[in-house]
Design a protein that fits this description.
Length: 950
Amino acid sequence: MDTEVNPENPVSGASVPKRPAPRLPGREPELSRLTRLFPVALGGTAASAVLVGEFGMGKSATLRTAAALAADAGFAVAIATGSRLESHLPGGLARQLADALDDLTADPASPRPRTAHPAEQCGPAGESEALERFFHLVRRAAEQGPLFLGIDNVHLSDAWSMRCLAYIRHRMLDLPVLIILTALIGHPPHREVAMLEMAGCTPATITLNGLGDAAAAEILGLAPGELASTCREATGGNPYLLHALRPRLLPGADPHALGSSLIGQVLHTRMHEFPHAPAILQAAAILGQDAGFDLLAQLAGIDELDALQAIDTMVRLHVLDNSNQPSLSYPFVRNSVLKDMPQTTRAVSHARAAKLLAETGAPIERVAAHLLDATAVRIPWGVDVLRLGARNALFAGEADLAARYLRRALDERLSSGRRVAVLLQLAHAEFQLDPPAAAVRVREAVDNIGRRETAAFIATAMLLSLCGGQDARLAISAAGQIAARLDAGGPDAVWPLLCMTYLAEAGSRLGPPPEFRDFEEQWAPLTDPAARRSRSALLALDAVRSGESAQDAVTHFADALSHVSAPAEDGTPQRLGGGDGDLFEQHYFFTLATAVLADEPVHVDRLCRVLDVEREPWDVHIPQGALPTLARGIALQASGDLQRASVHFESLLRRFDERGATTTCPVGVLCAAKLVECWVDLGRFEAATSLLDRMDFVASQGLFTHTYLLYARGRLRVATGYTRFGFEDLLSCGRRLAHHGMRFPGFVPWRAHAARAALALGQADDAARLAEEDMSASTRWGAARPLGTALTTLGLVREDDESERALTKAITALRSSPARLQLATALTELGALQSRHGQSEKAIETLREAVELSEHCGARPLARRAAEELRSSRRALTPAKDNEHGLTRQENRIAVMAAQGLTNREIATALHLTRRTVELHLSGAYRKLGIPGRAELGGALAKSQRVDTR
């Protein structure tokens, strides 16, 4: 800020002795423009310049430096300074100039008698004489040599002095006078005299802007670099603020957080000359980046019209930014104003700002930031805001900020339930920073438990919120401690929590989940509906893990879904109980439920209605509506509608990508894996490869859904020719499932694809073993899709009639399920087998259906293969052109080989056919050639060829 009085000014009412001009960092361009006016005045023509800038931008220092340069150039210098405290005294600034001019024109050898100054004669009676006397003083000084007149802070001059300057300006055009005026930018003009009347019509106008990085570094005594640049940003390069910042710039200090209460006091005092400006100043400091016009007016407690006038003035003065949100120009100024405010005033103002922002629907983070600064003020409604702000901060990786929000929430008067919730949330935040401290917070939360139901709900919410890795372990530990505390309430009170804990633990560990049977028998007598639904969930999970009965699993899942009531008249599903659907939001449970229910359209619809709720998911990584979207996509994929399924997966994956959760969230990993699997079936190998390349396989290893990722990569590698690597991925998928105790064959049909890969690698024994294991597991499970898939694989590894029987059974089983893609696969394999066995008519019929079905699914690789087999079968039915008896190509080929002396076994081995097929083709050839057997075959074929030649 410019000082009111300039103690360093070499001349304030006196001539300036010649001395070296002081160096002014960063003002070389402005001084160069001023010195270019020197030759004009030295040539006998008056010149003028106006130097403007905001508070503290160095107007006075620039004027003093220019005066020193002018003295060196031969000017006589006289300077006067306007002062806010003297602006009401008539003629004050004119008296300063008159004294200086008297000193310049007086004879040093003779004493000066006191004469009346122009300012002393101001008034209606002596106005003309006073103005003329002032002009004569200026002219007499100019007649003795070039004259430099500097008027600092002319905007603070009294009206009479301004009239004196305006009076002399057009009367000294032919005198060697240079007038430099400095003024605060945007200061309201005086009501009597305008700036141009004092400076002339065409003065050189120079605006002082903020200093650059180099000059800022020099003022601060720093080397040029990032710190100096940050300091310049915090102060806007304002020299006065830089000087104020320098002593506060301690090691490790953030320049954007520093301020000076003295600067705040000076600015507050200066704003008092403008109506309502002090109130707007404080409101702008409190609101910071939230300082919209309406909020400024409300927080300042003034009328909107008065606020608009004050804001307009402060924007013109560059105290506020000229934007739709007129906040204070520089962080250092804002911090200084805040430091000048009493702590209580500041806290209450932040509380009021938080309330105003909340009422306008501002982002949670902005409201929470003000609540954080509203210390020692009771704000009960702010607890939920602080908790939500902490949730978002943790998601953004700002655990320290989240902890600060939650510690502030603990300052409020909380019920025991809310205190437990805040403490557990704080434990999660502190777990990112200091795990032992988090354990202490969990114990503190357990000690604060009041109502049993509330504590169970809070622990369940924590289990749903912390989705994987070490966070999940923290949630399981907290839930276990709370369950132990609630155990005395009986099974109905603790069962839902125990169930959720079991699901979370089963999904977060790599080893086998805890034994369920002992657990289930211990809590068998249940009466509460929620507890009974929890029991059904665990029974469903146990059925899936054991792989014993698909019907039992579906029945138990249906019982767990029983909380969905009938739809309303408008079709909207009604959700009961508030938290009944939470079971299906547990990632492990959701993954298994969708895998089991994918072939049950009615239950899939019920599942989606349970999950399709308006509130945000507990887990911050999961977008709203993600689970029902994913469930519908999985159901579409299971039915063979690959195109629509991929649309669901792609749209959802974009939302996970926006949250950065595709690799870290179990549901995000599942979505990516299902999309890769879908793209493999669609033939979009490049897209699938690109997606897998950006997946972090190491980071997702601790998630149960990582198994899906291995399966998808294995399928892609096999499809793109990297069979060995794909085979290893599929085997790794199987090992993970076995290690996890998962015997359900329909989770991922890894054995079917591993068996195909083994056949391609020439490992027939491994393929047969995998096919037999898959058949055994699928038979035990009893669902159509896994059974049909296993039978298809069995048909690939068996020989002769057994192969055809297995494929026929597979088609029969798959026709009873919605698995159209698997049906198309089985039809393709059967058609290819029929074609190889010479049953071309049957093969054409089978393959025609396979082509149609695979094209309907959008499975381009399968459709191409089925179409190629179909073309081959049609060619096989076409009579060979080199015989007259109408032998097919296959019959002719086998007949020629038999005529050459090969046995039926040797022909079957050479053509990869069964002996029965060879026998059938030979019988057909004998009939068409009209011979009784193999002995006449050579002669008949030779005769046929001779006839054809003729």
